Amino acid sequence: MKKSWLAYSWRLTFASLFLPVISFCASVDSTLTFDFDFARFRLNDSTAVVEVYIAVPRNRLKFAEDGTLWRGSFMSRVSILAGDSALIRHNWGAENVAHHLDEIKPGQLLFTQAQFQVPAGEYNIAVRIEDENSRMSGSKVLRLSVQPFLQSKLLLSDLQLASIISKDSSASLFHKNNFKVVPNPSALYGTGMPMVYTYAEIYDLSFPSDSTYEVSYRVMDGSGRVMKTSPAKRRPILGSSLVEINALNIATLHSGSYTLEARVEDHHSGQQALVTRKFFVYREADVAAPEARSYGAEAIVESYRSLSLAELDEEFAATRYIADEEEKKIFGSLSEDAKRDFLVRFWTRRDRSPETARNEFREDYLGRVEHANKNFSGLRNGWKTDMGRVLLIYGFPSEIERTPSSGESRASQVWKYFEIEGGVEFDFVDVKGWGNYELVNSTARNELQDPNWERWLQVQ
């Protein structure tokens, strides 16, 4: 395959995609919502080309008037970090122009991407997006593991999820091996995007030979059940490295989390390679299904009609400790009305007594959120603090020991839960003296444990 990998990145621009059902909204604070993903391809035995894909909702950018046009732009800042050291830092801008503001609609996405040469190792990819007109920004971090690409072993690159793949001979931003591959960093598909397109590369096939290779796909749900399979494709081996393009129709899949598996077999060597990729399916019709309107759900439907988008986002943000990754992914991609329906379904699924008109689980959880905001807030909402997190996950403690500050000792609180794991405690200290109690130790499983936590009590 002919490639033109650059040392750090190539020319960047934008593309837009209109999704009639899946639309993207901003969060309630000064955070610019965006999605980012990456895929790894082989450059040589010890180095990968890492492509970083970014999608920004067009309607969340601020467009400034420029003569007869309106311009929106954002900066992308990518850092690839090895421990505390930056292997790569790269910034670039992307601009979008509209003739009229009413051209800008929910569901339109602006895409950009960059390429980096990364040696084998363990890294973090940190991405920061900033709207150059409003100065709103957002940041995300993902783990990146680059393994050596061993010679003489059949290998598959990552599966790059795409929204569109088509034949293309131009030198556009998304051109790759004679294809135009527009990424889908959200990994979200549904009514507006019924086809899951993937791009991959196969390495070290038995070439030259007169043999063939075979590629097959299947989709598993969150429980590992096979939900869909594609007929195996058998092709002649025309090179040692080949491109693999696939399109999967997910019209029959219900909303949920899925894993796509691609398997390739070299019939000459008998070697096989396998790669998997998680993706999500969401349709508003699934959320608004009749079963979502149980007797208990009807009691909270009306309460959401009067809530603003910011209030809806704030309520769901506070569920971060009980919502699963699929729910977080889906909620962030919904329109305002769909978020109302989603929240009804979210709480209904957790209702302990669906036959009653009250949803006690929701009332209890949101009551704890309110308590945290009233009692633990400072520079941030109370539910975001250490005490707020413990309160939302474990409930109100059975007993609290409070020790005020003195000349030589910081203020502290010990929360005791007698009914959890045979009795556990959480030790909080006002480390900075601002009234923000930080968790420094706990005896609960999977929590911070520091046998010498009392050192935090001493004023230095």
Key features of this structure:
460 residues; alpha+beta; Immunoglobulin-like; six-stranded antiparallel β-sheet; 41% strand; disordered N terminus
Describe the structure.
The protein has 460 residues and is of the alpha+beta class. The protein has 4 domains: 1-147, Immunoglobulins (Immunoglobulin-like); 150-282, Immunoglobulins (Immunoglobulin-like, Sandwich); 284-373; 397-457, no CATH class. It contains 7 helices and 24 strands. The chain has helices at 284-287, 295-305, 309-317, 325-331, 336-349, 360-375, 386-394; strands at 16-18, 35-44, 47-57, 64-66, 69-82, 85-98, 108-119, 121-131, 137-146, 155-156, 160-167, 175-176, 179-183, 188-190, 195-203, 212-221, 226-236, 242-249, 256-266, 272-282, 399-403, 412-417, 424-429, 438-442. A hairpin with a 2-residue loop joins strand 5 (69-82) and strand 6. Helix 2 packs antiparallel against helix 5.
Helix and strand arrangement:
Layout (H helix, E strand, L loop, with lengths): L15 E3 L16 E10 L2 E11 L6 E3 L2 E14 L2 E14 L9 E12 L1 E11 L5 E10 L8 E2 L3 E8 L7 E2 L2 E5 L4 E3 L4 E9 L8 E10 L4 E11 L5 E8 L6 E11 L5 E11 L1 H4 L7 H11 L3 H9 L7 H7 L4 H14 L10 H16 L10 H9 L4 E5 L8 E6 L6 E6 L8 E5 L18
Parallel strand pairs: 14-20
Antiparallel strand pairs: 1-7, 2-3, 3-7, 4-5, 5-6, 5-8, 8-9, 10-15, 11-13, 11-15, 12-13, 15-18, 16-17, 16-19, 19-20, 21-22, 22-23, 23-24
Helix pairs in contact: 2-5, 3-5, 6-7
